[in-house]
Design goal:
Number of domains: 2
Largest sheet: none
Order of helices and strands: HHHHHHHHHHHHHHHHHHHHHHHHH
Distance between the termini: 65 Å
Oligomer: single chain
Strand content: under 5%
Radius of gyration: 25 Å
Structural class: mainly alpha
Length: 511
């Protein structure tokens, strides 16, 4: 399969079929805070305001602002852009794998019997795998799609530069890197991926590195730009001035989980990711994943023992089967930002596997190439795999299309997660199913009574039903947990006025 135009058309055609039932999936979860109720994106001309809102995702939010300007909140267009980005990423995956198979030193690797088919099938696996649904359908995860778009482009341009230097290509590299730094911080792993390519496919040495440092400079600059943007975002979000103690904001998004505990927890998460790649069933948009309590906990220790052979495999296969070694290396580098020592509030999300699917697809394509002796059987096996993935993805889209059903599905798998009960309660409330909403909000509070948001959700429900005394009680509880919430204090005064317990005009309370 060498005709690039035909490949591109096929990828977009297959992608449009697989995701044909996703265009009317409503906004969900963070889509509301980042798009629907976000005043920042309502004016696409306020470039400075959009950048200050979150420099690490400036390009993403700018794209939302442009879409809001032209399409308002018509969800079809948001999904269409996400799907186009996903299909284009699949095509770039094809180009990247095709280039990789032709690089210097690949003659030292074991012969791949069906090398001409590997880029095509690898791209289709990347396109059709059900684990990609969260990155594609969950609109706010456009940041992942844009980051990997820049990631793939930067890798392709590096390979071309490494083979033959051209000034135009070099300028494009700088442009792609600077744009990528403003999509999502996961792009910061790009220097490690460049190093992986150097070790496997080029005659790299320190002497060459020093002599041609300018080739690597745009990639290395990410190690400064991305942490700087992260720190600026956190300082702005927390409304705090800069001091040296704030440098930690560049490498962690939460202070509630230690680096060691996060790393141990991620050892279990990675095994879950591997299971989802090989057997993509029982997916959920929000997992309940308890933190590891120590190194010698049986679950943690077992996970570490399970991951060790895979890490060892990177080195073990380096001399024996470098294609498999490279695939494993790609997988781990893809997860190094979000599944290592940089704590995030949520330890697991399916969209974090978006780029890791490339390593998985390449591993499977190479493994089958060594195991299968006839080309017809090889093609048949991958057609079956891709068809199976496509059916699972299409089915997963149907779950996303029903927000209440999707939340109920997630709760079946994580019945003790307060956030899910609160989310389902909000969905019921939006449908004016007040009794069901109150039940879910109460469940959320029973599971976690230290989060003011759950009290505020219940207060909002009571307020909507004109039960102002009950709303006041819940709002007070939220303020006891976090007294500095100015907007909540104003809301409390409004409730007092509406209940007849305050003589202040409502207009003055809102000033």
């Amino acid at each position: 399969m060498q005709n690039k135009t035909l490949i591109c058309v096929l990828i977009f055609y297959v992608g449009s079929i697989i995701y044909s039932n996703s265009f009317q999936v409503p906004f969900s979860l963070d889509d509301y805070s980042m798009i629907v109720y976000n005043p920042i994106i309502k004016n696409f001309q306020d470039i400075r305001g959009i950048f200050r809102f979150d420099p690490t995702r400036f390009i993403t939010h700018l794209s939302f602002a442009l879409q809001y300007h032209y399409h308002g909140l018509r969800v079809f267009w948001y999904h269409l852009v996400n799907l186009i980005l996903h299909c284009f990423n699949a095509y770039l995956c094809y180009i990247l794998v095709q280039l990789t198979l032709k690089l210097p030193r690949t003659g030292e690797f074991p012969t791949l019997k069906y090398a001409s088919w590997i880029p095509f099938f690898g791209a289709l696996i990347f396109l059709a795998h059900p684990i990609q649904t969260q990155a594609v359908i969950y609109i706010v995860q456009r940041s992942v799609l844009l980051a990997i778009l820049c990631y793939f482009l930067a890798l392709i341009l590096f390979i071309r530069l490494r083979l033959q230097f051209k000034w135009m290509t070099y300028v494009l590299v700088w442009l792609v890197i600077l744009l990528g730094a403003m999509t999502k911080p996961i792009i910061v792993s790009l220097p490690l991926m460049i190093f992986l390519y150097e070790c496997y496919f080029f005659d790299w040495s320190w002497k060459y590195f020093k002599k041609n440092f300018y080739l690597y400079l745009p990639y290395l600059i990410l190690l400064l730009i991305v942490p700087f943007f992260l720190m600026c975002h956190m300082l702005n979000y927390l409304s705090e001035p800069f001091d040296l103690s704030k440098l930690t904001y560049a490498s962690r998004m939460t202070g509630e989980i230690s680096r060691g505990q996060y790393l141990l927890t991620e050892s279990r998460v990675i095994l879950t990711y591997l299971r989802l790649l090989w057997l993509p069933i029982n997916q959920s948009f929000d997992y309940s994943y308890p933190l590891s309590k120590g190194l010698f906990n049986w679950n943690t220790l077992g996970s570490l023992l399970g991951i060790f052979p895979l890490l060892y495999g990177v080195f073990f296969f380096y001399k024996r089967n470098r294609w498999l070694s490279f695939s494993l290396g790609w997988f781990f580098i893809s997860l190094v930002v979000e599944s290592s020592i940089f704590p995030l509030p949520d330890v697991i999300f399916e969209h974090r596997l978006y780029m890791a699917v490339v390593g998985f697809a390449f591993f499977v394509c190479c493994l089958f190439s060594f195991a299968i002796n006839t080309q017809r059987l090889y093609i048949f096996c991958f057609l079956v795999i891709i068809l199976s993935y496509s059916i699972l993805t299409y089915s997963r889209n149907l779950i996303w299309a029903d927000p209440i059903g999707s939340a109920q599905d997630a709760l079946k798998k994580a019945p003790h997660k307060a956030r899910l009960h609160n989310h389902l309660g909000w969905l019921y409330q939006s449908k004016k199913l007040f009794t069901l909403a109150e039940i879910e909000y109460t469940k959320a509070l029973n599971l976690d009574n230290n989060d003011p948001q759950y009290y505020l959700s219940l207060a909002d429900l009571y307020s909507q039903q004109a039960k102002y005394l009950e709303a006041i009680e819940q709002t007070k509880k939220a303020l006891r947990l976090r007294p500095g919430l100015v907007n909540v204090q104003i809301k409390l005064e409004e409730l007092y006025y509406l209940s007849g317990q305050s003589n202040k005009p409502l207009r003055s309370l809102r000033k």
